[in-house]
Amino acid sequence: MIFPFLMLVVRLIVVSFPMKHYKINAILLRIGVPLIWVYPIFFTFFLIPAVGVCRQLSSPYPLGSVHIYYANPLFGLRNSYFYLYNTIVWLFLSIIANVGLFLKIAKARSQLISFQKGSISYKAELSISITTIVMILFYVINGGFVLIYILYYGTDSYFSFLLIVKPFATDMQTCVVPWIFYLTHPVFKRVAVSDMGVSSTTFSRQMNHS
């Protein structure tokens, strides 16, 4: 959850401090990257002594419908509340950082001349912006699934059936974000070279030498 926010902050520092962003981001990444790996432990430590079990799904699912759950967590804590609170906090921070970044980019873009707006750097910024928005969208989707689980699991509400879609949404988050980044970022674009143009240029050179 920290990665989209960290990605936004790095870009915001680049726009805000163009002369010394390298030093600031070097310090930020030196702290932020290890934190991405350590941070989840503080919210999942209670699952270390827990065991995985197959549990019967509650109503409205029929008898025989099971899902993998956990039992005997430390202090009786539940993962869903930690996940929901984390989603809300990082979603809120990401939206604030994204709004600040767009305002900075809009101000800088108004000072560019027209041909610069079609440059590779502009397309790269647009690609990263699209990728970031998709990341924030998945924040909302995952938070919505957790909220539905807390409010409607075990009831007769049709919202309970939406929990079936959650694993697919998680897989989409893993696949769609890098897929969109790959399709939109100019670094992955190949420059097409026309064979006809190469042949005609070679032929004209040969005629000039003869």
Automatic annotation (TrEMBL):
Cited InterPro entries: 7TM_GPCR_serpentine_rcpt_Sru (IPR003839)
Keyword ATP-binding found: no
Source species, domain of life: Eukaryota
Keyword set, alphabetical order: Membrane, Transmembrane, Transmembrane helix
Transmembrane stretches, start-end: 27-51, 82-105, 126-152, 158-182
Name this polypeptide is given: Serpentine receptor class gamma
The organism of origin for this protein: Caenorhabditis brenneri (Nematode worm)
